[in-house]
């Protein structure tokens, strides 16, 4: 095809495109002591003074455990075609070992049945950061055995739900689990050991590989096995060799450390070299890379904002503006020579810049790096300071504009040849936002935390129209003076 005939961005999305929303168990379920569930690392962390904003916990969250039928009805009313949720590991296998608690599995059986009856396709994430506390006490993700415990758990859930759930995601954002949990300590379990964080990353990779095998051993072959990565879209501040080297280092630590072994069966040589002063990588045993390098049926991508870096000024001092919470300890092992920069322009309540081009770049990158592998956007969204109007409605024009811009970027990537098969808005509901407690609202549905009343925001109604029609409705311009 000549260059002049390059296809223009289509007006509509493919008819088979999945329009969904996503949540995670600890952020929405509550009921932390019901039906045999025992504490996860997030129960312990959130109950530790000073770890979360306002001392907030997920004890009740938005009570989805008791309100799931109403929440599914709300999804159906909005016109969603898919729902990505996570399984609470300590609800299913309380100690992280041994047989399942059927009362815990029964909740997810009921949820899946309710979704299917409403015509909504379920997508299961097995691990969204809620490691059983007993496994953390035994060493957590830096301990090799945790990967084998995960594989056992994956087989249990796959056998229980694999006849009705076709889309499976082993891990959500293993970067956060490894580096925010074990290096900077801003996430559970709150440890600050960079060498342990690198071990955790490897064992999360191993868990994905072993878990994939376990899932496929108990499920129909038609089912899809994937994982969700939040690889940073890293941009050097300038094109100087020093800034480009800084970008390579952060790209290796956010993406290459996972997609290297998962997609190619090897860690990047630049990663191993850069982190050699932190660890000798002797925890990588013979056969591990083959175990990790399992075939994928799809790759899921989470995106919120790009990352801008430069070589650090040795005389500069101040907080690290990487967007991942305040800590005296860096989530980037062996990267103290890298400086992070806030791009100019619009930002969300998280302080993250709004830049849909980053999502386009992320999609097209993996289209090149994993040709032929279907892609999903498994998380994308924004936090804003949403408040009900006097009439009870919740107007969030900034989020509508955010979604329009990012979905347009997805549509552009599809037009340019990317095989993107679905999009999951983060998040369906306002919820417990990890260390930020209930201060940050990512939901398309507003939740009054005192009454648990749900109110679809303007963005939910807009997104529902997009889901029903396969097109992007127009948006009203946001008055930046308001």
From TrEMBL:
InterPro entries reported for this sequence: GH, GH_1_N_CS, Glyco_hydro_1, Glyco_hydro_1_AS, Glyco_hydro_1_beta-glucosidase
Pfam families, per database record: Glyco_hydro_1
This protein's GO CC annotations: cytosol
Entry keyword set: Carbohydrate metabolism, Cellulose degradation, Glycosidase, Hydrolase, Polysaccharide degradation
Listed EC numbers: 3.2.1.21
Annotated substrate binding sites: 27, 128, 172, 304, 426, 433-434
SUPFAM superfamilies on file: (Trans)glycosidases
Keyword Ligase: no
EC primary class: hydrolase
GO terms classed as biological process: cellulose catabolic process
Active site residues per record: 173 (proton donor), 379 (nucleophile)
Enzymatic reactions: Hydrolysis of terminal, non-reducing beta-D-glucosyl residues with release of beta-D-glucose
GO molecular function: beta-glucosidase activity
Highest rank taxon of the organism: Bacteria
Entry keyword annotation includes Ribosomal protein: no
Gene3D superfamilies documented for this protein: Glycosidases
NCBIfam families assigned: BGL (TIGR03356)
Family: Belongs to the glycosyl hydrolase 1 family.
Protein's UniProt name: Beta-glucosidase
């Amino acid at each position: 095809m000549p260059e002049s005939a390059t296809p223009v961005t289509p007006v509509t999305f493919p008819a088979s495109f999945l329009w969904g929303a996503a949540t995670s168990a600890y952020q929405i379920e509550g009921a932390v002591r019901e039906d045999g569930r025992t504490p996860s690392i997030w129960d312990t962390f959130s109950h530790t003074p000073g770890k979360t904003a306002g001392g907030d916990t997920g004890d009740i969250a938005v009570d989805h455990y008791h309100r799931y039928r109403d929440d599914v009805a709300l999804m159906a009313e909005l016109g969603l075609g898919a729902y990505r949720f996570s399984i609470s590991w300590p609800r299913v296998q309380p100690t992280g070992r041994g047989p399942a608690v059927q009362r815990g599995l029964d909740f997810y059986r009921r949820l899946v049945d309710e979704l299917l009856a409403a015509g909504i396709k379920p997508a299961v994430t097995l691990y969204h950061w809620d490691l059983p506390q007993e496994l953390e006490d035994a060493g957590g993700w830096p301990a090799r055995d945790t990967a084998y415990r995960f594989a056992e758990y994956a087989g249990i859930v796959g056998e229980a739900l694999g006849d009705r759930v076709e889309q499976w995601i082993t891990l959500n954002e293993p970067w956060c689990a490894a580096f925010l949990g074990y290096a900077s300590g801003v996430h559970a379990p709150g440890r600050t050991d960079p060498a342990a964080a690198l071990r955790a990353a490897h064992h999360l990779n191993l868990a994905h590989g072993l878990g994939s095998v376990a899932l496929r051993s108990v499920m129909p072959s038609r089912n899809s096995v994937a994982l969700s990565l939040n690889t940073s879209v890293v941009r050097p501040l300038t094109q100087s060799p020093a800034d480009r080297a800084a970008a390579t280092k952060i790209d290796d630590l956010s993406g290459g450390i996972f997609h290297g072994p998962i997609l190619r069966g090897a860690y990047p040589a630049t990663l191993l070299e850069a982190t050699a002063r932190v660890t000798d990588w002797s925890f990588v045993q013979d056969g591990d890379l083959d175990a990790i390098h399992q075939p994928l049926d799809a790759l899921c991508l989470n995106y919120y904002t790009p990352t801008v870096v430069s070589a650090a000024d040795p005389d500069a001092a101040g907080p690290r503006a990487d967007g991942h919470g305040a800590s005296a300890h860096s989530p980037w092992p062996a990267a103290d020579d890298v400086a992070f920069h806030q791009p100019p322009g619009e930002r969300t309540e998280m302080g993250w810049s709004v830049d849909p081009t980053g999502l386009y770049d992320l999609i097209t990158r993996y289209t090149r790096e994993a040709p032929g592998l279907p892609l999903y956007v498994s998380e994308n969204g924004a936090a804003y300071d949403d408040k009900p109007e006097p009439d009870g409605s919740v107007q969030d024009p900034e989020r509508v504009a955010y979604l329009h811009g990012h979905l347009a970027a997805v549509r552009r990537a599809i037009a340019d040849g990317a095989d993107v098969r679905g999009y999951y808005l983060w998040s369906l509901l306002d919820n417990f936002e990890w260390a930020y407690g209930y201060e940050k609202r990512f939901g398309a549905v507003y939740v009054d935390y005192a009454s648990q009343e749900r109110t679809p925001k303007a963005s939910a109604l807009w997104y529902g129209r997009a889901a029903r029609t396969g097109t992007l409705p127009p948006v009203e311009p946001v008055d930046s003076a308001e």
